[in-house]
Design goal:
binds NADPH dihydro-nicotinamide-adenine-dinucleotide phosphate, single chain
Amino acid sequence: MKRFEGKTVVITGGNKGIGLAMAERFSAEGARLVLASVEAQVEAAADALKSTGAQVLAVLCDVTDPVAVRRLYETADATFGSVDVSVQNAGIITIAKVEDLTEQEWDATLSVNTKGVFLCCQEAIRQMRKSGRGGRLINMASGQARDGFIYTPHYAASKFGVIGLTQSLAKELAQENITVNAICPGIIKTDMWDYNDRVWGRMLGDYGPSELMASWVQNIPMKRAGTGQDVAGLAAFLASEDADYITGQTINVDGGLIMS
Ligand code: NDP
């Protein structure tokens, strides 16, 4: 019997990058999947997983829209009969000097990265309480939830916020068999990181493509960038019975880059 057979896992931002790697990991371990994102590309990602025999539902959902988020979790429950694990992974970043950072960028970043995590937790909890099966909430933070980087005060604030809401919900839900934990990825090679490499690279010096990333990787004790699979391994552990007694924690997946 596979570890997540009979369990339903919702993953926001599940169509690419870290979210897709987690989807692949959970489906390989038998989970039924609900993938949510704003672009129709999520349907192609779901189709690719279905072709491997997985049970997958794709839902278009903007995590900043409370009505859409409620519909996402109600649809997950109506389709598969429960919501057992919810991974709040959707996220955005922009990079700008303080004098250029707009109110719109600030609001959008906090809205997706922090409010979106909260709204998804709230609706997942509603379904988990209804089923009485308990559940696992896994929130995607960042190395920037430990140590704010230059030119991203809005992103750092949004990710520090994820740790705060994770701890608060963990305390509220501790007696309901619902655990809440956060993950802090370091440098993970995805579209988001390609953007970071390009824009930080331009702003911090005359770096060519991948040169900034290569120089930052030199600061990682393990001397390699991370992969979506590295993050997926931790998500699967936190969703498993092996993590029954772990809640309110924030764990780095970064090859030792940040040790606090
Ligand atoms: P990507 O840019 O590759 O993917 C981001 C995902 O979030 C996409 O699926 C995107 O969907 C989805 N998304 C964005 N906005 C919304 C929204 N309003 N509603 C629903 N879905 C949305 O990023 P990564 O895979 O790299 O990042 C995943 C998470 O990990 C993010 O929270 C990020 O902050 C965090 N992280 C990443 C690191 C890295 O080095 N890559 C480091 C630390 C943290 P769509 O394609 O439809 O727009």
